[in-house]
Write a structure and sequence with these properties.
The chain is an all-alpha fold. It is built from twelve helices and no strands.
């Protein structure tokens, strides 16, 4: 009887068949991983972002110098991003748990130390000013989502994870203040449509599916302007390290 109980318990701890799918990320935040990211050499990262080969464009070709000037809205602003978050995304591209052919190819030959160096470089860059249409408005209802959430839809306040200033958190929560509007919107659409699945515990997928298109658009405007309003233009995100 005791053996049967052990087998049943072990079975309960296993994934529920194929539907469970692959892990959303292979990054384990061990002491070693934290140390690796903390020791990332920004001076090396500055050199890596300009390296170009026959097969792979330089980081600057799409994200701009220091990750501050993406050439098109579909590319994210990387300047001022939390180093641990950038490292995780680069590792996810390298491992294939986040899919984008150009990014997968760009990082496939880079070591973890080089990924950490890039992450450190971008974390040190000032949060850039982002273009936002002057006629875009943010409703009181959307502001409530930022600071109070919506219990009826089980939506936690954005600020509870991303911080009151949109500065992100130490491990896998990104800075979103200063992110360009169209990239923000497209990312949320990708989460809602299960095109992006590397969020731990499906947190962003659950939230994105609960939000309306108008709410997503207004949140994007709010956080873009929040980055522009940072008085000294420095990266509050780096302080999250």
């Amino acid at each position: 009887m005791k053996t049967h109980k052990i087998i049943i318990l072990a079975s309960a701890l296993l994934p529920f068949g194929p539907a469970q799918g692959a892990p959303s990320s292979n990054v384990a935040w061990t002491v070693e991983t934290h140390s690796l990211v903390r020791k990332g050499d920004a001076s090396i990262g500055a050199k890596i972002e300009t390296v170009e080969t026959e097969d792979v464009n330089a980081c600057t070709d799409c994200h701009g110098k220091g990750g501050a000037e993406p050439d098109r809205d579909k590319h994210p602003t990387l300047a001022g991003q939390v180093a641990a978050y950038t490292f995780k995304q680069l590792r996810d591209y390298k491992d294939g748990t986040r899919e984008n052919r150009r990014m997968n190819e760009a990082v496939e030959r880079l070591t973890n130390e080089q990924l950490a160096a890039l992450a450190a470089w971008y974390a040190q860059q000032p949060v850039p000013t982002v273009e936002v249409d002057a006629d875009e408005t943010v409703s009181e209802e959307t502001l409530r989502l930022v600071f109070r959430g919506d219990k009826k839809r089980l939506i936690q306040p954005c600020a509870s994870c991303h911080g009151r200033n949109g500065q992100g958190a130490i491990i896998d929560v990104p800075a979103i203040a200063g992110q360009n509007v169209k990239y923000f919107v497209e990312t949320m659409k990708d989460y809602a449509g299960e095109k992006r699945t590397n969020d731990i515990y499906s947190r962003m997928r659950i939230i994105a599916k609960a939000l309306s298109r108008d709410e997503i658009n207004e949140l994007a405007v709010y956080y873009a302007r929040l980055g522009n309003e940072q008085s000294d233009g420095s990266n509050q995100q780096a302080a999250a390290q």
